[in-house]
Amino acid sequence: MIFDTLANADRYAALHPLFPRAFEFLRGTDLQALAPGRFAVEGEAIRAIVERVAGRRRDAAKLECHRRYIDIQMVLAGSDEMGWRALGECRKPLADYLAEKDIQFFSDPPASWIATPPGAFCIFFPEDAHAPLVGSGEIHKVILKIAVA
Fold first, then answer.
1. What residue spans define the domains of the chain?
2. Which of 28, 106, 116, 123 has the CB geometry, 3.0–4.6 Å to 2, for a possible disulfide?
3. What is the DSSP annotation of the chain?
4. Would you identify the CATH topology of the domain 2-147?
5. What are the tens digits of pLDDT across the range 47-58?
6. Rounded to 5 degrees, what angle do the CA atoms 119, 121, 126 make?
7. What is the rounded distance in angstroms from the CA atom of residue 5 to the CA atom of residue 131?
8. Given this model, what pLDDT does residue 59 score?
9. Whether residue 149 has pLDDT greater than 90
């Protein structure tokens, strides 16, 4: 898991061959102007999801993980207090992994919380379970889904 701002994004470009394009998209797109929805950035290799949703309480957020995609979750407005736990420490799956949606949920509590303000992002790798969209008021964010392979 990585927590940082776009000013430091170049530090992470070498971690994945698609990260430079992902950060180029985040820097070069008027993200505020994008309507909520899903957008192809580089076909299925990089997809963007724009959300404007009401934040929820910590106890309503469930940890989730993905096997085929890395998430770069960047907050545009509001504050998203994202929960985190190492996937290897998750012991309470709510259901089996859904390959068609690339998601699995857990009832384990997060081990820590990351208060993510506007302009900051979290990168969640497949080994990171995360519980996003925690906060009061509306959260406006963009999630980039980066294909692992």
1. 2-147
2. 123
3. -EEEEGGGGGGGGGG-TTHHHHHHHHHHS-GGGPPSEEEEEETBTEEEEEEEEE-B-GGG--EEE-SSEEEEEEEEES-EEEEEEEGGG---BSS--BTTTTBEEE-SPPSEEEEE-TTEEEEE-TTEEEE--BSSSEEEEEEEEEE--
4. Jelly Rolls (2.60.120)
5. 999 999 999 999
6. 170
7. 19
8. 96
9. no
